[in-house]
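Format notes (please read before filing issues)

Several people have asked whether sequences and structure tokens are stored in separate files. They are not. Every record keeps both together, in the order shown below: the sequence lines, then the token lines. Line labels are part of the format and must not be stripped during preprocessing.
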Amino acid sequence: MKRRRKKKTASVRYLSAEMGRHRILAARTPRGGESWRIHLRRLAVIVILLALLALGVTALVQGIRWAGRKLLWENDAYKVRTINVMVDGRLSREHVLEFMNLPDDMNLWALLLTRRASAGNDNTWRGMTVDQIRESFLRRIPSVSDMDIAVRLPDRLDVRVKERVPFAIVDAGRAYGDFVVDRHGIVFFDPRRDDNLPLIAGVPSDNLMPGVDLSGSLTASLHLLDMVRQPRYNRDINIRRLNVAAQDYLECWLDNGTHVTILWPAMHESGAAGVTHLELKLNSLRSVLRDSSETGQRLQSINLTLTEDNIPATPEANQR
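Then the structure lines:
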């Protein structure tokens, strides 16, 4: 009988040799053809594990989204049912809700999650955030200075609106009426304006519209009006009209008809230096007005463009 040759099944053989009491095993590296098969099998295992991991993560994310939709932002229990509107001003609740344009089926959880997510994510309510709702409202209603939207789970929304306070009237030179500005120079339209407010004339009307910021061009006049409203000045100085057409000085008309021309260093700056110089001018103006009141002499004009020690004043011509 012929003996069958045993097939070589092992790709690695160990050669043993004895040296003293120690046995040394020497491994023979597999052949080149067998080595790449081993690496290929290992790579295939890694790819399969990564694919399974990716499928598991995807399934987990989809499961979380499904649970979130069912439990939170598609749950009717969290639909808005009450909207509390608090207005610091004269704007009506109906006007606030009209300009907010909130959908009737708005879900508060959807609004909260949208608030914390970036644009383009999987959101359910028009992709709008609370800040975007607020900014859109402020753009549409320039007479509102600030707005706050608070979500009160499960079904309430609190809205607080703060209106701008008219500070002065701006002569727009148009047929439909004038605008008003607040203390910070923001233009808005107020049909119920107070005619006792001072009038600012000389403002270019080309781009004058609600929402325009005039704080840069009206820095000096706003500082002057704000200063004369303080208790130490408002008893003696009441400005009814200003003209800001000139760049280097301001023209003012007081309630008694006196025309005042005034300028001070750094008048177009908002720093403390300009305020200090303005206080010196107003102290001089107050002294001149008190002196004329004590003597019973009405003044036609007062020039405050020079130093505080040199204040030309012209009395009315019809006085004896």
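For reference, the curators noted about this record: Residues 32-73 form the longest helix (42 residues). The longest strand covers residues 144-152.
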